[in-house]
Amino acid sequence: MASLAPANGIHVGGRWEAGELGTYDVDDPADKAVLAAVANAGAAQATAAVDAAEAAAAEWAATSPRRRSEILHRVFELMHRDADDLAALICAENGKSATDARAEVGYAAEFFRWFAEEAVRIDGSYGSAPAGGVRTVVTRRPVGIAALVTPWNFPAAMATRKIAPALAAGCTVVLKPAAETPLTALAVARLLAEAGVPAGVVNVVPTTEPEEVVGTWLADPRVRKVSFTGSTGVGRHLLRQAADRVLNASMELGGNAPFIVTEDADVAAAVEGAMIAKFRGGGQACTAANRLYVHADVAEEFTRLLAERVNALVVGRGADASTQIGPLINERAVHRVAGLVDDAVAGGARVVAQAELPADLSGYFFAPTVLADVVPDARVVQEEIFAPVAPIVTWTDEAELLALVNESEMGLAGYLYSGDLKRALQLAERIDSGMIGINRGLVSDPAAPFGGFKQSGLGREGAHEGIEEYQETQYFSVDWS
Ligand code: NAD
């Protein structure tokens, strides 16, 4: 990591500070080795971050949209300049493969390009009231200081998907990255400063005490917005706190994506799609295919082809060039998924594929697995797996399929493979998910509105909608008599 040594301080008001609570160790999940001792913030530093965001707010909001846009464009360029180093940091602290980490950096950077373009397209309207005698002028203002809270599974992209629209809208932010993966967010903070983002506009506060830091922010009357990505349980908890102050809230929460294969689908293409939808990032994506519903007519072929692919997956350290699947994030995740697989097998499921685990790995590895003959109410189908395990359920009746798909309280992503596009769209319109890949295993796109139905969240990130999450609408009623 020659040009981008990991930053490990609290980034507040443009300064790098030691932690109020000392330091904590960030580990490499591939071998549990300590990567860095990172500054650990407490409540006082959380407040100092809001002080810095407040001090910078008026000037940033008054900065011309063109200037904000140019700075965001510059961040995009710098992320590409340092893409190798950023990807290496992601590999190290998250564990994902170098290919997945590189793809994440590209995706993460793209939010700066997209929102650089949106920054200069903030519009309003001017109209005449129907009764006459009044003109209405509608305008959009930055919502104010935004508290951003992000998970470990996409250490760069989950942060940039919030920072870029917030800055484009003219907001200043305080960001708490996941304790497991602060290094990437801190590296992005350094690039933001290099690109010309003024001190205090983006403050990054790593901590092992999320309740203390985020709780401090949500109770602070100067904070006007919370945007959270993470589990539904923590999202619900933050929403309750946000309710006390009627805080503007965006929530990107858990998923339980169905992956549907119809009897007329191109089975080989569906298997390719499943490899991406299920195994990208080792299955640790909120959009990961969680339950594979395959029509009985093609189930044998689909299962055989998927098993061949999964048996051949190379598991290892993310940084090794040959690695396709890295470790899980921690020990708890390994125990959890082992329990889900055991439960499925006890309920009659068959393990039809399991990739080999290299013997010399001491990290949090779990072998990519395919399960066939899984019953629809197995825990592995009902719960978010967040690991490289693909449970296959067969179906024959479309109405029954849709009932199974929609009984979940989650509704983030879904995938549908069919040879008939009209049928696919008709089915997709009846699936209660915010995003559906049709003959594609990937839905994430900075130009598209990312978000879920039901308990998968509130609001959208990316697209035109993404910037609106950081704006207040204001209108002036002007006497025109
Ligand atoms: P998590 O909810 O445990 O943690 C997410 C963030 O919340 C972390 O920064 C964590 O430190 C913080 N946090 C935890 N407890 C908190 C508390 N009491 N108060 C304030 N902050 C707190 O989730 P995770 O394990 O990091 O990520 C996995 C989950 O995130 C999965 O459910 C996944 O589906 C979801 N996710 C959703 C999206 C999406 O866009 N919908 C994207 C990625 C991940």
UniProtKB/TrEMBL annotation:
Please give the family membership noted in the entry: Belongs to the aldehyde dehydrogenase family.
* Catalytic machinery residues: 252
Q: What is this protein called?
A: NAD-dependent succinate-semialdehyde dehydrogenase
Please provide the record's keywords in A-Z order. Oxidoreductase
Keyword Oxidoreductase listed? The answer is yes
Q: Which PANTHER family match?
A: SUCCINATE-SEMIALDEHYDE DEHYDROGENASE, MITOCHONDRIAL
Q: Does the keyword Endoplasmic reticulum apply?
A: no
Pfam families cross-referenced by the UniProt entry: Aldedh
Q: Tell me where in this chain the Aldehyde dehydrogenase domain is found.
A: 16-474
